[in-house]
Amino acid sequence: MTIQSIELKNFRNYEDLNISFDKGTNIFYGDNAQGKTNILEAVYMSGTTKSHKGSRDREMIRFGATEAHIRIVVVKDQFQSSGAEKEYRIDMHLKNNRSKGIAINRVPIKKASELFGILHMVFFSPEDLNIIKNGPAERRRFLDSELCQLDKIYLSDLTNYNKILNQRNKLLKDMVYRPDLKDTLSVWDLQLVETGKKIIRRRKQFIDELNEIVRKIHFRISGEKEELAICYEPNIDDIFFGDELSRAKERDRKLCQTSVGPHRDDMKFSIQEIDIRKFGSQGQQRTSALSLKLSEIELVRENIHETPVLLLDDVLSELDGSRQNYLLNSIYDTQTLITCTGLDEFVKNRFQINRVFRVVNGEVFEIGDVANG
């Protein structure tokens, strides 16, 4: 899978941009606040319908404009044995006061979920290096982000679960003034338990798959000195979800929120049985985060039989030399879009660069004559 090209109109600080990508390594370099990350954000939007920053649609529209346009062309290997390829054109219109419009091959889609599965990607930013030591919400976000790309059934279950959870929480708040609504709580409980059990079981399966991959990658990155193990820590076992939710009703009424369920799950990361969320060094935490991101690539390959696009947002500057080398040597067969402030590390390590762009205040210039390995 590769991205062939991208067009941006009035997106962030880009008035009009049209660039083509190489199938290998594409580097966008320049000073900070020039628009490098905006290109990766547009790519991420095209695969997930959302900004990796959590920005609202209107915040991504160029100042003074009423709407923004993203167009991206993706080429996928449809039939690997025959070498046949299929091209997908994704169009996205962001509007100030209305929902975004999305079309695939010029055909408008009704649900955002129809977009999932066309463009698979792994996004890696400096913030991801803190996924181990930060709170459980970030680790759940990682779980959901990856599973939604791999499994449309999970995407549907998660969407339904969140809707039911919101409705139940709203009811708990309304019951403060309307105690007579208590009898309707069981309706939402049944739906929450039914959908939540599916999510818990799928997450457990995913962690089992992830563990096999991440253990091998981390062993190599650490110089064969450490073995990383990931353990799924569900807030409640799926078998007991219904009973525990029932027992928590009075507590939930006082808190006006649902205290039990997969929306409170976590993941434990251990090296030699030591919980590195609490007791690991910064080096161990960062190496584990790098292992986690690289394992995403392998998971997509194994589940979808395609190689995802890798988006590296200024992450190399946050890694030491050995981790930089391991990362760069691991992506030789992956289309990669990299943002950075300079090219010194690539030239020094004689890393293969296929296409280089300099970004200056919302304008992109292709650069030639860059030393390659």
Task: Explain this structure.
The protein has 373 residues and is of the alpha/beta class. The chain has two domains: 1-120 and 306-373, Rossmann fold; 130-305, Up-down Bundle (Glutathione S-transferase Yfyf (Class Pi), Chain A, domain 2), CATH 1.20.1050.90. It is 39% helix and 25% strand. It is built from ten helices and 15 strands. The protein has helices spanning 36-48, 136-150, 152-174, 185-221, 241-247, 249-255, 276-279, 282-304, 321-330, 344-348; strands spanning 2-11, 14-20, 25-29, 67-79, 84-95, 101-104, 107-108, 121-124, 228-233, 266-271, 274-275, 309-313, 336-340, 355-360, 363-367. The strands form three sheets. It has a six-stranded antiparallel sheet with strand order 2-1-4-5-6-7, covered by helices on one side. Strands 8-12-13-3-14-15 form a six-stranded mixed sheet, with helices on both faces. Strands 9-10-11 form a three-stranded antiparallel sheet. Helix 2 (136-150) packs across helix 3, helix 3 (152-174) packs across helix 4 (185-221) and helix 4 (185-221) packs across helix 5 (241-247). It is globular and about 70 Å long. It starts with a strand and ends in a 6-residue tail after the last strand.
